[in-house]
Model the fold of this input.
Amino acid sequence: MKIIVCIKQVVDTNDIKWTPNNTIDREGAQSIVNPCDMLAIETALKIKENTPQHTTITAISMGPKQAESALKTAIAMGCDEAFLICDKKFSGSDTVATSRTLSATIKKVCPNFDLIICGQYASDGDTAQTGPSIAQKLDIEQITYVTEPLLDEALNENKIKVIRKADEVIEVIETQLPALICVDDCPYEPRPIKINGYIHSQDQEIKMLTADDIGLSSEETGIKGSPTWVAKAFRSVSNRKNEIITPQNTKEALEFLSSAINSTKILEENKEQIDG
Ligand code: FAD
Done:
């Protein structure tokens, strides 16, 4: 079985600073593997441990040179090989161009794959579009919001069966391979890296690919291949306030709520005058 895991290096959200233009200040910011993608790697490793036939896991990432360290993490955890798709031509890629680049890479490096595993969303961009868009471009089945593959079932018959949790609904879905799944909210943690895994990863080559290597022109990727444009970027500032009230009885509580709702209404109705 051939598994591909798509991983993205993101800025650690505990360490985000902003530029005066309200873009993320990446200078010196700590980079990590996107948390959902750590679950994607763990899911791939669990499948590998449970498949009797020979299974290989290929990790791929599109990003700057520094994303090599994210792929080293994937190798240290147990992935077999890793590709970094890295080229100035990719700069400015939106989700359309990103998924085009990733699907072109998959066709190039592992055309006879069985399963692609993505995170459900990236903690920085958070569109959750990349996985489904790769599946659409490769014309394969996709299952999103997967929490867990059912390892003892189906995989041997060239199918995969998974648990999917969307909102409060839990579904069990089976599909034919090749397929793509997006994982989130798994009941297991990514395994910790062992010292020999770390040493092994330092010796492993991360294979680099450019736009030319995967056969994409500069019209198809980067800013030119991206139909999305950002009209405005801003940080939303919440001016909500909490007030704790301690009414003695229900009547007092209702009186308070009623006056609060009325004052909100009055403020909304007279917003223009108040702002003026
Ligand atoms: P999601 O769709 O939320 O991610 C879901 C999953 O897809 C991830 O968990 C992972 O498995 C996979 N995935 C996502 N991205 C990658 C990746 N790069 N490699 C491997 N797997 C991946 N970002 C930049 O870094 N540099 C830029 O110059 C840049 N320019 C942009 C310009 C525009 C106009 C726009 C709209 C966005 C730009 N971005 C840029 C952001 C970039 O487009 C997105 O980060 C990227 O398309 C992925 O979308 P997302 O972050 O919403 O990921």
